[in-house]
Amino acid sequence: MAKITVIDYHTFDGEDGKKLSNQLVDHKVDILHRCGGKGRCTTCRVEVFEGAFGDISDIEKQSLAKKGHTQKNIRLSCQIRVNGDATIKPIMTKSNSHLEPGPRPEE
Fold it and tell me: Which residue ranges does the record assign to the 2Fe-2S ferredoxin-type domain (predicted)?
């Protein structure tokens, strides 16, 4: 089990191998995922303070670049899987955007 610390929320036990976006939803973090986890909308962005989520995929890289998000510590939670302890901060949430989250990303 990984310890996932979500700044401004809480810490929870994450399950290695599962998508970060779904684990955030399951642990009551109101992160957006407007495209349903397809890596297109970038609303599920998180800032990674600690932890490694592996190499960035081409889909993730292209989607972030297309929207002007080029910082190395910004990742799409629907495109990364938990693989150890991490500290992150959701960038867009239902609370700060007043948007509906979107369909649950497929596992």
Answer: 2-94
* pLDDT tens for each residue of 17-51: 999 999 999 999 999 999 999 999 999 999 999 99
The beta strand positions in 7-99, using DSSP E, are: 11-14, 45-50, 74-76, 86-90
**Sheet strands (E) in the chain:** 2-6, 11-14, 45-50, 74-76, 86-90
Over residues 62-95, the pLDDT tens digits come to 999 999 999 999 999 999 999 999 999 999 999 9
What pTM did the predictor assign? 0.94
Can you read off the two tokens belonging to residue 104? 């649950």
- Into which CATH architecture does domain 2-94 fall? Roll (3.10)
Report the DSSP beta bridge partners of residue 4: 12, 86
Contact (Cβ atoms closer than 8 angstroms) between residue 7 and residue 32 = no
Tokens of 45: 């962005």
HSE on the CB side for 84, CA within 13 Å? 6
